[in-house]
Amino acid sequence: MNWIDSIILGLIEECGSNDIYEVCDYLGIDIVKLEPNNAILLGNESVYNRNFFNREVIFIRNDFAVKYARFVISHEVCHAVVHTSIGSAAFNGDLINKGKLERQANYFAFKFNNIKFDEIQLYEMTMEQISSCLELPEKALKQLFNEI
């Protein structure tokens, strides 16, 4: 996904930072941390909303470790920056390849955060253990390792 790599480089250059919180600030995306059971989250870890009272907002659970939260916010920034036409395609919701969009957003988050894997450190660990050790979503890790 070289095209996503190019978007990330351009975004970092434009914003003058590779800190996801500074990027959100530059883009005018608010980050709102909520209790995990808040109805706005719809049972998800996070939700990106482009039209929340004429604002762009990432709603995220307030109980994540720092690295985990950065990954999840980066994932949502991908939806904000790369998947800009999805909101206008809502009437075709059944035709949207949500799995593809989620893979792209996870790839974006891995690359944006420059996440590297130490094979020796992670040797013989379960996916749950790797997720805990690296403070990353297990679902995104499973997706990544299934595609390698």
UniProtKB/TrEMBL annotation:
UniProt-listed Gene3D superfamilies: 1.10.10.2910
A Pfam family per the record: Peptidase_M78
Domain IrrE N-terminal-like: from-to ranges: 24-139
Protein name: Putative Zn peptidase
